[in-house]
Amino acid sequence: MEEISVPGKRKLLVQESDNNYASANETTNSEPIPKRRSLARTCIHEVAVPKGYTSPTDESTYGTLSDPVYNGNMAKTYPFELDPFQRVSVACLERKESVLVSAHTSAGKTAVAEYAIAMSFRDKQRVIYTSPLKALSNQKYRELSQEFSDVGLMTGDVTIAPNASCLVMTTEILRGMLFRGSEVIKEVAWVIFDEIHYMKDRERGVVWEESIIFLPPAIKMVFLSATMSNATEFAEWICNLHKQPCHVVYTDYRPTPLQHYMFPLGGSGLYLVVDENEQFKEDNFMKLQETFTKTRKQSSGNKGGMKVSARIAKGGTASGVSDIYKIVKMIMERKFQPVIVFSFSRRECEHNAMSMSKLDFNSEEEKDAVEQVFRNAIICLSEEDRSLPAIELMLPLLKRGIAVHHSGLLPIIKELVELLFQEGLVKALFATETFAMGLNMPAKTVVFTSVKKWDGDANRYIGSGEYIQMSGRAGRRGKDERGICVIMIDEECLSRHDGIAAHLERLHSPFGIKGKHRCCDAEGSRGHDASRGQLGMEMKILKEMVLGKPAPLVSTFRLSYYSILNLMSRAEGQFTAEHVIKNSFHQFQYEKALPEVGQRISTLEQEVALLDSSGEAELTEYHKMELELAQLEKKIMSEITRPEKILMYLVPGRLVKVRDGGNDWGWGVVVNVVKKPSTGSSSLPASLASIRSSSAYIVDTLLHCSPGLSESGSRQKPCPPRPGEKGEMHVVPVPLPLISGLSSIRIAIPSDLRPAEARQNILLALQELGNRYPQGLPKLHPVKDMGINEPELVNLVNQIEELEHKIFAHPLRKSGQTESQFKSYQRKAEVNHEIQQLKSKMRESQLKKFRDELKNRSRVLKMLGHIDADGVLQLKGRAACLIDTGDELLVTELMFNGTFNDLDHHQVTALASCFIQCDKSNEEIRLRKELAKPLQQLQDSARRIAQIQRECKLDIDVEEYVESTSRPYLMDVIYCWSKGASFAEVIEMTDIFEGSIIRLARRLGEFLNQLATAAHAVGEATLEKKFQAGSETLRRGIMFANSLYL
Q1: What CATH code is assigned to 642-778?
Q2: Per-residue confidence (pLDDT) for residue 291, from 0 to 100
């Protein structure tokens, strides 16, 4: 790594004073109204300079490297005074030097990008603007087209004016142009990378990294980013890579300051926890805790009052009004709209919006405007598509000023919502976190329905970077004195057990084995005294989330066959895979961190020496037993839920427990069991049939659901009530694999469940059972009750019972002096694990690691015939070079082994859909006979490729690879659409969101075009025509309706 000079930080301060700034905290009327302190618009400037670099510019006009100031004629003027960070950024651009601009959402980074474009136009140069998503590219194209005359768009789906001076494109398109040596690149002077923090994305981050590496050194770059903690490190990498200066301009200034409140679910009032001066209000946080303590005491003191205790436990009210309803209503009454309500579930977004049925925020004039915009937007659709429920049901909501925004919506509806929101015609928007990206669409208020999200592995608190991004939507510059953030918090987040007590209480038996310290897993019941707990969401966690530093940008660089093959195909040989590895941000960060790693190891070793090690052997033993028990339980439940074993016990009235991914429904009541009829021939490959056989059965179960389900009329799925809601009992169709527990208890159910009162009586009965069995509802024993006598299962049961008795008899269950020991044990294990990881990191050179991986991947390419023994690209490799939407190895294998040859273009299209990532379905995979065999051939080929990779010493799980490269969830849907079915017909074939279906179809169209190009490159004219025909059959109707931004 070359030496890089980094001048010291230069901080610019501009003082602003606002002495008439009042707090929104109305619970402290007796206290003086706080004033907003003088706030400094801080701009920090740094620059990384390559060794030996001399500035060619005139200092009187352009300033110096360490103090860039521009005194010439501006390429673009603005109707407002530029902020300090914008002025410094413009000066860096005029010096013709790269710059990274790091600032909060809504701070004004777009003005810097617009100046770079205007400067390119002035200097008769071309400029490329990249964004991470096609939807954002469309939005940016529309925005820039209103500002500049010569703008084009390239996204793979759409190409507009490809010869324009300013080209907006996705980063994948830019990388493809760089790989192929496009002539356009030779004419480009500037590349703007929007949302550069996307580079840490595990799946797509490598695209940014490779694009930056491959850019010619003469091209200068503008990086726009949310705030990140290691901006200087990134600039040093750019400087080292391209041998050019890279400036960092950073500001943490918010044009509109924020106030952060907490709202206790089931309670009332807002608690100011962080004020507009970023001061944490500890007293208010403690008052918030007290509200839950009072609620618990009320609940425990009213054991005989079922109605009251149920209401308090669920955080509802006597009127049944949900907390989100109360908050939105309060926001509107106080004129704090527009409001964005963020949820981490698409279904929750829809449910929350539908629960606003009694609220109306738009005037008659605004309603007319909404309807006119709506009708104009959907005029491009056919009459049949305009009648879709997903479209018709949205208009009444929009006319009342309420809208939903998430990735599962129809694209045309999502864009319509964005346009109406920008025009002020949507007052309450219920959205997922994806709305926090892209164009500047701020609101006055932002509400978080939760501070925890399911990330695929666990429910975790959102990070400071995520919170900053979403909360940054609060406060409109020039309109609001302050932005308001409201965090909805429930008792489960705020109080929990700490240490070994909670660790022990999480233990539960699938067989109802009794134990003195067993916790209850029945809904609405706890087997512990919550007063023993401490703050779960400690003040430290809240402070880190709201006030903490954003996460650093960490490289996710990886080697891909697509990149290796494209590097081998470059005639000039300028770049090799070795060159890319050496110059990656990943390698740069590794080399820079080595000295710090050694120091960290030393510090951790000193900490270990001071930690208490008494009782460590017992704790280790206990922890090992608990892990072993969890694995055994998982195995036995997968056996018990097989249809031949469980169906006879799923009789009406049986209590069952349901878990759907991150949603724990608790106990429900079986109403009926049905076997879904298969459409056509449901012939599945053996590998899928064994997994999916249970999915053919649906258990109609009476479950506790979020309220308002029956009122929505939408295709949204039911979801469990949040802690702040008074739920309703509904019959929900539950796929058999989602049954996670089987009770020995049966209750009588009414013959007619249509009346709400009849269903609610069942809820009361379930709550009464929870009180009657505080140690947990009794469960059916697999051997004694269900009569399952298979030796393997009996052996599992015996192992579990023996292990549970050991755990219940363990000394840790009888000792009350283990809290500090357990904490010390946990910390010691964490520290030792970190030490081992750091030592391993120091021993193993990252460069050597990637070199070994490159060698192994090259062996795979040789064995599959992509390259010859000398590393020269062969015909198969040339085809794979042109495919980056799906797995390039697998799809070229199908092209060359004849799989596609035997299929018509409808089958080809359906089979190709398996390569596109999509949402998973809980329903049975329905495949007709003409699709089952091609899928089996695809899986056989995938298994062979995975096994070859294992033989070449690549760490890959064969079955995981097969599953990840063959996703048949929408095969039948795409097949029917390709053959002419209507959109209304195909959406009834799956439970996957309409927007997700369209997103897959559009990516599939792009994928088929790539396959046609690949077939043409290797002289396969027949295949080329099939792929082209398949692509054409997709491109009709609402699936490929034009974007409203174009």
Answers
A1: 2.40.30.300
A2: 75
